[in-house]
């Protein structure tokens, strides 16, 4: 494991290895909502994890050090885009929290209450795209051969990393092949979510899921900045090197999950941008390919849709992973580069 940690932390100073490893966890929790079809698969795995480790969950819930009570924050991970026809806010999400974290701070709840339109990374209730159909019998063997091969973990990571995943699953009491048919980025996310669940944190209590349920309840208009297919495409074209790094980093990072969650949630609740930038953007310092596809390119595609909300006649709230709203390539920075004034609340 030590060798794995050192490889995962390439580009960091030796004294910063622990912090660098920890920052990778933040990326999984703040950058991308998992597409619903994949989320359903992971949900079954995570529920199994909770059942198998109930004693760990109970001990974690009793440990108040995971989230320390503090005085109410004066700033939030919330921004207002100025000079729009109606108020438009940007809210950074953490995709896993606990039920006792709600309600959120008053300015965040007020931004939601005032909004008539709520935009998410994807519309969590939208129908999934139909799966690709196999070629008909009449298709020639040469045409069938041109069909893309299904993504699988074995084909996307090195043999060494694959064996490490198998060992992790076996040690945790799961079938060693449970991830075999999933693409590498989803496996990386699943590994972190499995560990997160043992601490009592669940995707259903993530900020985006919480407000999605409320938006449906109160009849607000729901907008997706992208589709589930867009997310799968963003994750699907990574090189074997990038896929391998994602999975190996996840394996290395889960050991430091408890303090990392504590630091992340404290920084998020307090709107501490300096800490959030270090935690989130530092996670991809040595993985430029992943950074470009998962963060930068998606942020660029979202800007026109956010501008359309800004030009609208009703108040709006945009809720995306916090990682998309902090740093030099964030949605906030891209809007400011176009001349808009965006103010943290």
What does this protein structure show overall?
The protein is α/β, with parallel strands linked by helices. It has one domain. It is built from 16 helices and 6 strands. Strands 4-3-5-2-1-6 form a 6-stranded mixed β-sheet, with helices on both faces. The N and C termini lie far apart (42 Å). Residues 1-29, 34-68 and 138-149 have low confidence and may be disordered.
What's a concise summary of this model?
With 345 residues, the protein is of the alpha/beta class. It has 16 helices and 6 strands. Residues 1-29, 34-68 and 138-149 have low confidence and may be disordered.
Core attributes:
single chain; 345 residues; globular; six-stranded mixed sheet; alpha/beta; disordered N terminus; 9% strand
Order of helices and strands: HHHHEEHEHHHHHEHHHHHEHE
Question: Measured on Cα atoms, how large is the radius of gyration?
Answer: 20 Å
Gross morphology: globular
Number of domains: 1
Strand content: 5-15%
Number of helices: 16
**How confident overall, as mean pLDDT?**
77
The structural class is alpha/beta
Strand order, main sheet: write it out.
Answer: 4-3-5-2-1-6
Helix content: 40-55%
Let me know the largest β-sheet. 6 strands, mixed
Task: Count every beta strand, where a strand is a DSSP E run of 2 or more residues.
Answer: 6
SSE layout and pairing:
Layout: H1 2-8, H2 17-30, H3 36-52, H4 54-61, E1 78-81, E2 88-93, H5 106-114, E3 117-122, H6 141-145, H7 153-156, H8 159-172, H9 184-198, H10 207-217, E4 221-226, H11 228-236, H12 240-253, H13 257-269, H14 273-281, H15 288-310, E5 316-321, H16 331-337, E6 342-344
Helix pairs in contact: 2-12, 2-13, 2-14, 3-9, 8-12, 9-12
